[in-house]
Amino acid sequence: MERYEIRLSGSGGQGLLLGGIILAEGAISDGKNSVQTQSYGPEARGGASKSEVIISSEEIDFPKVRNCDILLSLTQKAYEKYGSGLKEDGILIVDSSVSAIKSGNIKIYSVPILDTAIKELGKPMVTNIVALGVLVEITKVISNEALEKAVLDRVPKGTEDLNRKALTKGYELARNLI
Amino acid sequence: MKSRVRLMQGNEACVEGAIAAGMRFYAGYPITPSTEIAELSAEKLPLVGGRFMQMEDEIGGMAAIIGASLAGAKSMTATSGPGFSLKQENIGYATIAEVPCVIVNVQRGGPSTGMPTSPAQGEIMQARWGTHGDHPVIALTPSSVRETFDLTIKAFNMAEKYRTPVILLMDEVIGHMREKVQLPDPSELEIVERKRPDCSSEEYLPYKADYDLVPPMADFGTGYRYHVTGLVHDETGFPSNNAEVADKLIRRLSNKIEMHRDEIESWEEENTEDAEIIILSYGCVARASKSAMNILRSKGIKVGTFRPISIWPFPERRLRELSLRVKTIVVPEMNLGQLVLEVERICGCNTIIEKLNKVSCEIIYPEEIVRKIEEVL
């Protein structure tokens, strides 16, 4: 059985909830089952927020992620809160600003996701899309075609080119590492 | 045709189901974790000729759907614990005045404002006895996004058929989770409309019940004038202090649900044929129970699951049957033990009943259920 549990974590407002939805929708267009759940505090911005996705070729009963196969942390706070939930042989993708501790057989990828969105693309709002490009290129949990389709189905009209560019940047960042 | 397979949120499925069932009026006061139901109703109702009203408070929301329903519109409100408490008085009013309506409660941690963004199952008994006086209740509880769609339709159908408020008892996990669903084609859906009078307005007695104990209901504004009250009333709808009238009304209200129990009760069971242990759970916890059952079955332990879908009325007869042949029934709940009281009442003499309770406002994990069962084996 092919099953991935993925946790996207960061600060509220970074678009990771939408990121989780896009990933889950991409999995469906790949013909798989997916469940997306979220957890957030009462605050609308800031804090540590997480969005969780389970992708499986089989029916998904329990909807929440426990020990995840893949963890994305865009902030130090989110890494510290959710880092321990990663499996021993899991994949950890962090923004370069996060200092992560190597343990077990965890594979760590440190990627300048925030800087790329802010400095290279000039739009912090595409942070989540750059992150998805990185995550999918490294892990292949869904196909690149499904990701692209899911992104374009969800983003506001008129921002398609920007988001395509953000995805491409994400892919490039990942390819430089693997 | 656009594919009906898509990722959908539980709260969204509730609105889709409501509109498919014929909801044309929504009133409420947005509250986490039910807010998406209000937002999407505001967005979608005008597109089908319906109306959305944001009210000044929860009580007003409940009052408005009663009014709209009396005027003939299928109506719904959605809330969470604090609002559910506030609505209770008017839920009682809808019950005695026999006004069809649907009340959704997406449960979060309580009491009071509790934990707004976290799940709980604390309103099992409030759904049954939250409003005062003897009264019937129908409360349905979904454990998936697709089932939220189906049960919302069922809630409307039962409200219409029995002229009673119906409660859809969700929880934060089911309300907020998104999963893959395939919605049925609208032509496949069974939609029930309330009985309307077939006599003239002069002959109409608004609370004279038919053989099914449900009186036909005229829409306000169509010439059928009648009196609606929360007081005990006779067949004309006017208040009465007559003991016989009171006894007859309260018994009829209760019996109109009791006599249709077979149609209303629903549940799902899995692997109960050879089960020695049954996990009885509902809502999001039922999904943990299913995982736990699979883990335990793989270890050779004969476990089955029983999931009441109609919490009220509880599927009593079936559970009693099952209880005669199992060793233990384990009841995991995200409260300190509410539905287990009903389970104990029904089959406490037949089998051992074990509780597993969690009030940390987190879902119960499959491993916790597995551990509990391994302990009691």
What is this structure, in a nutshell?
The complex is a heterodimer of chains A (178) and B (377). Chain A has 178 residues and is α/β, with parallel strands linked by helices.
Please provide a written account of the structure.
The complex is a heterodimer of chains A (178) and B (377). Chain A is an alpha/beta fold and 178 residues long. Chain A has a single domain (3-175), classed as 3-Layer(aba) Sandwich (Pyruvate-ferredoxin Oxidoreductase, domain 3), CATH 3.40.920.10. Chain A has 6 helices and 6 strands, in the order E-H-E-E-E-H-E-E-H-H-H-H. A 6-stranded mixed β-sheet of chain A has the order 2-3-1-4-5-6, with helices on both faces. In chain A, strand 2 (33-39) and strand 3 (46-56) form a beta hairpin. Chain A is globular. Chain B is of the alpha/beta class. Chain B folds into 2 domains: 5-188, Rossmann fold (3-Layer(aba) Sandwich), CATH 3.40.50.970; 266-376, Rossmann fold (3-Layer(aba) Sandwich), CATH 3.40.50. Chain B is 38% helix and 21% strand. Chain B has helices at residues 10-21, 35-44, 58-70, 81-96, 124-129, 145-162, 172-176, 243-258, 261-264, 285-298, 316-323, 339-347, 366-376; strands at 5-9, 23-28, 51-54, 74-79, 101-109, 115-119, 138-140, 165-171, 178-182, 267-270, 277-280, 303-308, 310-312, 328-333, 352-357. In chain B, strands 2, 3, 4, 5, 6, 7, 8 and 13 form an 8-stranded mixed β-sheet that branches. The longest helix of chain B has 18 residues, at 145-162. The model of chain B has no long low-confidence stretch (mean pLDDT 97). At the A-B interface, helix 1 and strand 2 of A face strand 1, strand 9 and helix 10 of B.
